[in-house]
Amino acid sequence: MLRKSKKNAHVFRQMKETKENPSKLVCVTAYDYTFAKLLDESGVDIILVGDSLGMVVQGNSNTLSVTLEQMIYHTQCVSRGVQEAHLCVDMPFMSYQVSAREALRNAGRLVSEGGAHSVKLEGGVNIARTVEKITSSGIPVLGHVGLTPQSFHQLGGYKIQGKTVSARESLLQDALALEDSGAYALVLEGIPAELAKAITDRLKIPTIGIGAGPHCDGQVLVLQDILGLNTDFKPKFVKAYGNLNELVKEAITQFSNEVKSSKFPTKEHSFYAGS
Fold first, then answer.
1. What is the C-alpha separation between 75 and 31, in angstroms, rounded?
2. Measured distance CA(123)–CA(87) in Å, rounded
3. What integer pLDDT is reported at residue 20 of this predicted model?
4. CA–CA distance from 208 to each of 69, 150, 253 (Å)?
5. Residues of the chain with pLDDT under 70
6. Which pLDDT score, from 0 to 100, does residue 1 have?
7. pLDDT (0 to 100) of residue 38
8. What SS3 state is found at 225?
9. Active-site residue list
10. Got the DSSP string for 192-222?
């Protein structure tokens, strides 16, 4: 049975176009069923199956090795925990760059096999025709400009973008091109706050910031960063709202100590014949 939700691409666009709902969009990443269910129950607007799983789940130094099959698998896991949120998924490196036709085929697989409601692509003017082909086929697209992790090597690393006048103008044109191509919203990553404000004010579609200041129409963060699980990764734009790193280690240490001292399992956690 097809799930209907008030959290969809059409509604997100209307939120900004009509200004009926001043509340900002909340987007958080998830890669498995358990966390997806928790995010959904917490009222998150958009759950993003990010190709950041290459770093967060797989332990790689970047996102480039993540495959389409892996993204489909993780999207399937996440979709089983989603009832109300909008489910968006990253199209991984080289799944949309070769041709618009191949990009549409791969986007279709993420929707039909993975259960995604929309797909996210990195790039601007250079992928505008691809975005238009995907959206015209009925698949909503979330754009992504600024610091685009899949262009890690071309950008020379994870560096703030849009610092020069020409770079700022280029990013604005990228944003406008994606809007014209039918994107329902746009992620702005790793750009100066004043540039993010200028783009947000210019666009009719919502912007979702990550390392782009407070003026965007919404914000996105990686769940593990929000929970304080990854203590090795502390960029300026991340705020940890918990310290699960220590809580997890404390719980595991207590379990280990009780096993070694024969305090666990007790009668309470055991089965007996006839009981």
1. 7
2. 20
3. 57
4. 27, 18, 39
5. 1-5, 18-22, 152-153, 155-156, 275
6. 41
7. 98
8. helix
9. 189
10. -HHHHHHHHHH-SS-EEEESS-S-SSEEEE-
Is residue 70 within 8 Å of residue 110, measured between CB atoms? no
**Single-letter amino acid code for the residue at 167:** A
Single-letter code of the amino acid located at 44: V
- Structure tokens given for 73: 């698998």
Q: What confidence score (pLDDT) does residue 275 get?
A: 66
Average model confidence (pLDDT) across the chain? 94
Exposure string for 73-90, b = 16+ CB within 10 A, e = fewer: bbbbbbbebbeebbbbbb
Cβ-based neighbours of 169, under 8 Å, separated by 6 or more: none
Residues 225, 208 contacting (CB under 8 angstroms): no
Domain ranges across the chain: 9-243
Tell me: the pLDDT tens digits for 212-266? 999 999 999 999 999 999 887 788 899 999 999 999 999 999 999 999 999 999 9
Cβ pair 122, 138 in contact under 8 A: no
Buried b or exposed e, range 13-52, using 16+ CB within 10 angstroms: bebbeeeeeeebbbbbbbbbbebbbebbeeebbbbbbbbb
Q: Which residues pair with 220 in a beta bridge?
A: 27
How far does CA 45 lie from the centroid of its chain? 11
- Residues 95-117 have pLDDT tens digits of 999 999 999 999 999 999 999 99
User: Using CB atoms within 10 A of its CB, is residue 240 exposed (0-12), middle (13-18) or buried (19+)?
Assistant: middle
Of the candidate CATH numbers 3.90.1150.30, 3.40.605.10, 3.20.20.60, 3.30.160.20, the domain formed by 9-243 belongs to 3.20.20.60
> What tokens does 171 get?
């990013």
